[in-house]
From TrEMBL:
GO terms for biological process: phosphatidylinositol phosphate biosynthetic process. Residues 198-209 have a biased composition (Pro residues). The keyword Kinase applies. It comes from the Eukaryota. This is PIPK domain-containing protein. It comes from Xylaria multiplex. Residues 180-210 are annotated as: Disordered.
């Protein structure tokens, strides 16, 4: 289960995830407004950090579960950048595969900020964005490339009025990536576009290395993967407008600023970029 009520399934080879998109305002926005611009953008920007969505599935007929709100009507199929983790022994994976779902923590989060978090349960607060207390160690050239890609991707999202997306960051011990070196995803073939099909992790990332397959740290001790997820929340949707009005009303009583879901797209982009580059440590 995801924090938004989504369910996740993993293909048997671990290369793809099937995620439900249960909220109407999200799948409606993606289907009717973002899908074609996203496809065109990804075609023209193969280095993009936006997660590769390969399929968008919609139920052809109404079902009882859907009418009762018990079963989702839409799903996406997307790459799994944790590919290879399930081929690593569990005791090793827990120590050498780490992942974080990161959003700017400087926004107002009611679960955390109202009454100091006393009114929310620990289970509720656990659904907030993760905190990454380490550093992504990169060469100067790699850091500049990372920033350039992030700026381009987030400009595309801001131009489409998207907020509340997150950076999914994976850190793998470089000594461990060889566990799945010999495995290729099932169902891939020479006919498939190499820029689309997932590539198994290797001790040395392929040339050129990408954030999808693994970027080696500047000290050679870690491999990083990263992707931007959950770009389905549009500021101009009715749901977002209602939430923005509620937060503005609350700020008349207790000024806390915008939430990540009510911020303007340019402001969210600015804080997101600052967060991402704040994780980077440049090798001198």
């Amino acid at each position: 289960m995801g924090y938004s009520g989504s369910t996740f399934f993993r293909t048997i080879d671990g290369a793809y995830l099937v995620k439900s998109v249960p909220r109407h305002f999200e799948h409606d926005f993606f289907k009717n407004e973002l899908l074609l611009p996203y496809a065109e953008y990804m075609k023209n920007n193969p280095e993009s950090l936006l997660i590769r969505i390969t399929d968008f599935l919609e139920r052809a007929h109404k079902s009882l579960g859907e009418l009762l709100g018990l079963a989702p009507s839409h799903h996406i199929v997307m790459e799994n950048i944790l590919y290879g983790q399930d081929r690593t022994p569990k005791d090793v994976a827990r120590q050498k595969w780490e992942s974080w779902d990161l959003k700017p923590t400087s926004f107002f989060y009611p679960e955390r900020d109202v009454a100091g978090g006393a009114l929310a349960t620990e289970a509720t607060k656990s659904k907030l964005a993760d905190e990454f207390d380490g550093k992504v160690k990169l060469t100067k050239a790699r850091a500049a490339q990372f920033q350039e890609i992030l700026e381009k991707d987030t400009r595309f999202l801001a131009n489409n009025n998207v907020v509340d997306y997150s950076l999914f960051l994976v850190r793998i011990s470089a000594a461990d990536v060889s566990h799945s070196e010999s495995h290729r995803p099932l169902g891939t073939s020479q006919e498939m576009d190499g820029s689309i099909s997932p590539t198994p992790p290797r001790r040395s990332p392929p040339n050129p290395p990408t954030w999808r397959t693994g970027i080696m740290s500047s000290n050679g001790k870690e491999v990083y993967r990263a992707a931007i997820l959950d770009f389905f929340w549009a500021k101009h949707s009715l749901h977002a407008k209602v939430m923005t009005g509620l937060v503005r009303g609350y700020n008349l009583i207790d000024e806390q600023g915008p939430m990540s879901i009510t911020a303007e797209s340019d402001e969210y982009r600015e804080r997101f970029l600052k967060m991402c580059m704040g994780f980077v440590e440049i090798d001198k």
